[in-house]
Amino acid sequence: MPPSGIREFFDLVQEMDDVISLGVGEPDFPTPWKICDAAIQGLRHGITSYTSNAGLLELREAIAEDLYARYGVEYDPANEIVITAGVSEGMDVAMRAVLNTGDEVVVPQPCYVSYVPCVELAGGRAIALETREDDAFRLQPAALDEVITDRTRALLMGYPNNPTGAVMSRDDLLPIAEVADRHDLLVISDEIYAHLTYDGSHTCFASLPGMKARTLLLNGFSKAYAMTGWRLGYACGPPELIEGLVRVHGYTALCGSVIAQLGALEALRSCEPEMRQMVQQYDERRRVFVKGLNDIGLRCFEPKGAFYAFPSVQETGLTSREFSRRLLFEEKVAVVPGPAFGPCGEGFVRCTYATAMDQLQEALARLSNFVQRLGT
Question: Cα–Cα distance between 247 and 352 in angstroms, integer?
Answer without folding.
Answer: 36
